[in-house]
Design goal:
CATH superfamily: Metal-dependent hydrolases
Strand content: 5-15%
Bound molecules: fe (ii) ion
Structural class: alpha/beta
Radius of gyration: 17 Å
Oligomer: single chain
CATH architecture: Alpha-Beta Barrel
Strand order of the largest sheet: 2-4-5-6-7-8
Helix content: 40-55%
Number of helices: 11
Number of strands: 8
Length: 239
Amino acid sequence: MARIAVADGVHRLVATPHQEGWNAAACQHVQAAVQNLQRELNLNGIPLSLSSGMELLVTHDLLQTSDDERAHTLNGSRYILLELPAFDYPLYTAEVIFSLQLRGLVPILAHPERNAVIQDDIGCAVRLLQRGVLMQVSADSLSPAADRAVRRCAQELLRRGLVHLLASDAHNASRRAPRLAAGVQAAARIVGSERAQAMVTRIPEAILADRELDMAAIAAPTPRRWWLRLFGSHHDVEG
Ligand SMILES: [Fe+2]
């Protein structure tokens, strides 16, 4: 997987295993495993820099405070990666987000395009963004091989300027490999190459360095001309 990532142009990668609820022991385990893997990469001359994080399912457990919240964030920053269940939009989602924000954390929602409720009502994603949530679309979701509803939703999120980050959602070296380049190209056709590049360079760099992001500046809707609006959907189907 590391070799695939490097060949695809990735230099830095955050390992974010799935997690439910606060679990400091699991975080320590992941951090130790990531450090071991980094040593292996260095010994094998693979130029990839690893950081650790978690992908936390939105559950009501997150309403409780934990002394170890920062152990669960991306590279120990204020940014915390969340995911929704695939077919459900829990009623306590807004409450979880607010409670994390009260503790100084900035939620990032992983693959909003895969959530059935957001697919049906993009307004859900708009409201999350208005509440200060960053959106991370999976690069694979923009591939012609992706599920049709997932791909349409990912494209619509991009078109509306609701996306801050592109990520690989890598799970293995075959079907869900750590590749980004094709997704960046597909995103560039919708938001332009500068913004698509920022989603895999400038913005994640700021996140991993725990810098504050100017949300309005990085995700303002792309101004569109009337002829693009008329013909835009054709380009997207081809892309
Ligand atoms: Fe996920």
